Prior knowledge:
Strand order of the largest sheet: 1-2-3-4-5-6-7-9
Distance between the termini: 9 Å
Largest sheet: 8 strands, parallel, barrel
Helix content: 40-55%
Radius of gyration: 19 Å
Strand content: 5-15%
Number of helices: 11
Amino acid sequence: MIPFSVLDLSPIVEGGDAALALQRSLDLARQAERLGYHRYWLAEHHNMPGIASAATAVVIGHVAAGTRSIRVGAGGIMLPNHAPLTVAEQFGTLASLFPGRIDLGLGRAPGSDQRTMMALRRDPASAERFPHDVVELQGYFQPARPGQSVHAIPGEGLEVPIWLLGSSLFSAQLAAMLGLPFAFASHFAPDLMEEAAELYRARFEPSATLRQPHLMLALSVFAAPTEPEARRLFTSAQMQMLLLRRGVPGKLQPPVDSMEGLWTPMEEAMVSRAFAMAIVGDPARVADGLERFVARHSPDELLIAGQIYDHAARVRSYEIAAQAQTALRAA
């Protein structure tokens, strides 16, 4: 069976704070390690009241230090927000502290709004330099070359695994051209998933680090012992997406019995489309949904997300997904 991995946005819940979110992220990572998940990824977002992983490299170090074997990484670092040398030094440091356990996923979106981009001192044209910056970053992880004047220390010679992330066709094509593994954000932007996967596989060019395409698909899973409970847990993520689409992002809200009256028909359609790939239900439904998704799309890995308000319920959701993976492996 394909590996299952975790995508954690380190949610700040209503009534909680960033300290609690980061504490829970470490606990979830330890539980994921116990359950056999392959990777634990955190994402860079800025000016988001409900996300505690803005300083992503710092949080990765926190999680890696508190676990033993699970791979820990970024899903991802928004490269246009940073100088490639700075990212190489940060992840070279992490790879030196935790050898063989650090992943670096790269995206080209801002992970923020326009005003926050300005506060980050991000050049509006920086996204256009993304392919060049990826290649520059790759170079910093390679052994020193004759005449090279700028070195990433730590970083040089460590060959930290680089992934490209995306929700469109651009990064799929770039990952194929550079011979890099690719992760698609189908957990919130599923519309182009199949086309991006086909494009990546068809145009993939083998590289020194990867001989054949490696595709990871992100998928939201909201699992609980009963179907009604899972549907209720899902409402927290629905409300979070609704607020984001309204332009007023907030903390992760407690679940509600029904979304009736909380959104307009147009908003309901918009949120439902974003979560079109989400698997919500009891253990049997989740196992069936995962089996169908894998059979249809043939990913090399699954990256499972789940914005759930109650921490114990969130851990239980990942336990149910892991049990489904075990059943699929046995089958």
